[in-house]
Structure formats: C-alpha cells, structure tokens
Amino acid sequence: MCTFMSTLPKHSKTAGLKNKSKNLVLSLKPCADDKTYYRFRLLAFNGINSDRDDPHIIRYVHQIWGKDPEKGFPMIEDEIVCPVTPYVKVEGNKYNACKVCDAANKYFVAFKESNWKDREACKKNKLFGRKYQAIVPVYVVNDPNFDGNNNKFKVIIFNDKKEYQAFRAKIEKQLMTNNVFNASNAVDCCIHVASVPEVRNEGKPNEYVYNAKKIDKILFSNKPYDIPSITKETIDAMGFDDTYYVTSTPAEIQAFYSKHCIVSNDDIPEDDTILRVETQPSKPAKKTNEISNSKVENTKAPENDLDIDDLAADPDNEGLDVNDADEEVHDEPLKTNDVDAEDLLADLDI
Hints:
The structure is a single chain. This protein is α+β, with helices and mostly antiparallel strands. The chain has one domain (38-348). It contains 8 helices and 7 strands. It has helices at 99-113, 119-128, 161-174, 232-238, 240-244, 250-260, 308-311, 339-348, and strands spanning 38-42, 57-67, 74-81, 131-142, 153-158, 189-200, 208-220. Strands 1, 2, 3, 4, 5, 6 and 7 form a 7-stranded antiparallel β-sheet that branches. Helix 1 packs antiparallel against helix 2 (119-128).
C-alpha cells in the first residue's frame, strides 16, 4: 500500500524549534476517474552540503503519532531525523548516536527474550523504531485535485521501501529510451491514485474495513518536451538537501528521548522486576545502488545484513502515513526476518 503524509517538520517539536522547512510536501488524493492522473517532471539535483549524487533523498525518522484535538484524525505529534540517515554528517559513529534507536532495540530484545509474548515491549519497539522515508522532488505539471499546486516545486514521500524500489525500477526502465529528469527533452511521470478498500485484522474479532489511498498506476508521457521554467537556479533555490538532509541535533534527540522513551519510577509497579539487557551497536546497513543524474543504476533492494536484534531499530512500516480519520496508519505488525516471530506476532492481535 502506498499513501502520503501531509506534514513533515524539519525539527523536533519537542525541542521547541519552529518548522523552518518550506511547504513542499504534496499530499496526493484519489483521482476522479481512471483517466485522470497527476503529472510531474522528476527533478535531479546535486547535494550542495553533501556528496550525494542521487536525485532522491533517503532518510530515517522517529515519530510519535496522536490525533488532531478538533477533527480527530491521526497526525504526527513529534518527529526527529535519525542520525543513521545517509549523507548526513554526524560526529562520531552515527549508529551509536541515537538514544531512541537504542531504546527501540532494548524493547525488541525484551520482546524476544519473552518468547514473543511481551505485548508491551512489542508495542514500544514499534513506537520508537526508526521509519524509512524516500523523498522524491518533482515539478508539478498538473494536479487534478488542486490547481494551486501547478507549476510549483514539491516533494512526494514514500514510507514503503518496496513501493519506492518498484518506482525506481520504472524510472530505470524508462531511462533506456527517454530522459525523465529536469527541463530539457524529457518525459513526464504520470501517477494515478485510487481509493481502495482495505481489511484490517482480517478474521479477528476487531476486523474492520477502511478506504486506503494507493498509487495503482505509474506511467510516462509519450513524447519528450522542454519546461523552460525548470532551471538549475530554481531547483537550487528550493534547498531540498538543506530541508530534508538535516539530522536532528543531539539536543533534539535527547529531548525526544526524555519526553517519550524514559520510564518514570512512578510508572513501575512495586512488584515489577526490571529487565536489564545488553545490546550490541547496530551494524551499518549496506549502501544501496543509486540513481545518478544521468543514469539509473540497478535498483534491487539491498540484502539486510543486520541481525535480528538490530533489526528492531529499523522496522520499515507497511504503507505511508496519512492524516485521514479512517486510517490508523502506525500500528502495522513488527517486521523481522524471523518467520516464527512473524507468525507469533500475527497471533498477538496487536
């Protein structure tokens, strides 16, 4: 499933910093019919403050979700950018720099050592684990649902790694015959969004159906053409790297950790036995193949070289987060490479 977020703060709200990012995120809505598409020109740009040569931005975030007090729909209450984000400069070892990842990993170890029966540890691991984001800069040629987005620079955000890798594969295939990036002699990317009924907790007492937004078609226009308004200067002025390739500061990470992860002694029952676990630092993930500005390389998803304990700190969510009242977007089952663990988690009805 693939849907879209409508907010993406640059800094943690916990730290009391104002959101300095531009209003770049495009929230896609279902198209009116099968012949209606969003139409974009994909953008490729070089990172000014990094050695990144990929036109898309891959990063990891930690999020706390709540509900809008007035309208009741799910929304992000707090978010920080994890130091493990590629191309972001961090002092020291970035895999040891995030207390929130460490907290998520400890909860996973506790869940594992309980023989996959500790529901609270499972929920906390999913709550604190870092989430994947692929950010795709675009120039909006036509937004069928809101004319005000036309001829503007925006970003589309994928939170599902498999959906994003499939999207990259389509770009790679298209580049064999046509350019898809920037202004000159390139074809447009056309996306159709549908509202699809999805069943949650199928076959269980709390089963229910909701409408999910899903990209069901990605096509490219037939003939290449020029868009004069897309220039290097206009792309650079958007500051995509400065906005999205900025990790949260140690103070922001500490504030998020102190507010959400630390358990007060007042919360621990008198007869409770405190579990103490020792964990190893997370291993660096293998570097993915990248799309360069002139050519798309192999986009096969990398093999995961983290062990099962380390995997807890990186449970990529199924689907993307949407501010819609009919979806609870953040309580998908924990994903691991352990088949037995997945089967047991399904039985937990979490």
